[in-house]
């Protein structure tokens, strides 16, 4: 089965705190994150500058091919994106999700120990920007809130 090559939201993930996050069909993106999503550690997760965590489906598949038992939502990402050029994802990049939502990448994430079960020998550094540039998840702020849905197109704005 071929993946849709148009950049889009493959999966939306929320949790009551912790990982893995569970897939939902849609959610409201607000200045503080997705409705239905919570964080246990507010010192390191959440807030306006870390409202959303994003990751690439293609990176997850590549990690699976290396033998890691990761899957969409396991890395704690709110949005699993498909068909995007992940090399372009760095602080300052703005994206439009669907018709109305606009977000801006604020920084690369630091992998935390709660992700250990999803990596061979608990090597969470595999998705560290410092250790493996281009493999990190990213945080984003919500510039224009609204509803995000699975399948929404992802457009690069800057």
- The CATH topology is what? M1 Pyruvate Kinase, Domain 3
Tell me what the CATH architecture is.
Beta Barrel
| CATH C-level label | Mainly Beta
What is the chain-wise order of helices and strands? EEEEEHEEEEEE
What is the distance, rounded to the nearest whole angstrom, between the alpha carbons of the first and last residues? 31 Å
Q: Per DSSP, what share of the residues sits in E-state strands of 2 or more residues?
A: 25-35%
Strand count, sense and barrel status of the largest sheet are:
8 strands, mixed
Q: What is the alpha-carbon Rg in Å? A: 14 Å
Neighbour order of strands in the largest sheet: 2-1-6-5-9-8-7-11
CATH superfamily assignment? PK beta-barrel domain-like
Poorly predicted ranges: none
Helix content bin:
under 10%
Global shape = globular
Give me the count of strands: 11
How many helical stretches? Answer: 1
> Number of domains in the coordinates?
1
Helix/strand structural class: mainly beta
Give the rounded overall mean pLDDT. Answer: 92
What does this protein look like?
The chain is mostly beta strands and 158 residues long. It has one domain (8-156): M1 Pyruvate Kinase, Domain 3 (Beta Barrel), CATH 2.40.33.20. It is built from one helix and eleven strands; from the N terminus they run βββββαββββββ. A hairpin with a 3-residue loop joins strand 7 and strand 8 (101-108). The longest helix is centred in the middle third of the chain and has 9 residues, at 57-65. The radius of gyration is 14 Å and the shape is globular. The relative contact order is 0.26. The mean pLDDT is 92.
């Amino acid at each position: 089965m071929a993946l849709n090559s148009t950049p889009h939201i493959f999966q939306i993930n929320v949790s009551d705190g912790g990982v893995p996050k569970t897939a939902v069909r849609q959610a409201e993106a607000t200045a503080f994150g997705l409705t239905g999503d919570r964080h246990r550690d507010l010192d390191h997760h959440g807030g306006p500058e870390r409202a959303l965590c994003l990751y690439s489906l293609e990176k997850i598949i590549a990690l699976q091919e290396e033998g890691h038992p990761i899957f969409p939502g396991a890395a704690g990402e709110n949005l699993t994106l498909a068909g995007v050029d992940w090399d372009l994802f760095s602080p300052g990049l703005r994206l439009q999700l669907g018709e109305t939502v606009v977000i801006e990448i604020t920084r690369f994430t630091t992998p935390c120990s709660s992700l250990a079960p999803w990596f061979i020998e608990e090597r969470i550094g595999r998705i560290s920007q410092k250790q493996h540039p281009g493999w990190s998840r990213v945080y984003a702020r919500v510039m224009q809130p609204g509803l995000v849905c699975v399948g929404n197109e992802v457009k690069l704005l800057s």
